[in-house]
Write a structure and sequence with these properties.
Layout lengths: L1 E7 L2 E10 L4 H13 L4 E12 L1 H16 L3 E5 L3 H9 L7 E3 L2 H6 L4
Parallel strand pairs: 2-3, 3-4, 4-5
Antiparallel strand pairs: 1-2
Helix pairs in contact: 1-2
């Protein structure tokens, strides 16, 4: 798994490539929580290159979402592949996470 972090205006975009599973989840959650700890509480997870997520990946999203919201921010998802979106839908995550077709839309969804 590869993680790339970039600032887009007032939002931090975390691009993830590869699979999110038991072997990679700790690395991802550490990266996301480090952004939150640094005060960057408006996060967009760019999922265009996420090939697969297991329950470990879902736990990462839930942990990050809760922490971001407690700090006055939020976590949004962008460009989710159909197979990954199906996992999110089946697990009920699309009802608690805002999902967007692309990164610019997700970034623009945050108030300035």
């Amino acid at each position: 798994m590869q993680i790339t972090i970039a600032q887009h205006d007032h939002v931090t975009v975390v691009a993830i490539a590869g699979s999110i599973d038991a072997l990679t989840a700790d690395t991802l959650v550490s990266s996301l929580l480090a952004e939150l700890a640094a005060g960057r509480t408006r996060l967009v997870a760019h999922f265009a290159d996420v090939e697969y997520t297991s329950s470990a990946g879902l736990r990462v999203l839930l942990t990050t979402l809760k922490d971001a919201r407690q700090r006055g921010g939020d976590l949004r998802l962008a460009e989710i592949r159909p197979n990954v979106k199906q996992v999110l839908e089946l697990s009920g995550f699309t009802s608690i996470l805002k999902c967007f077709a692309d990164v610019p839309s997700a970034v623009a969804s945050f108030p300035k």
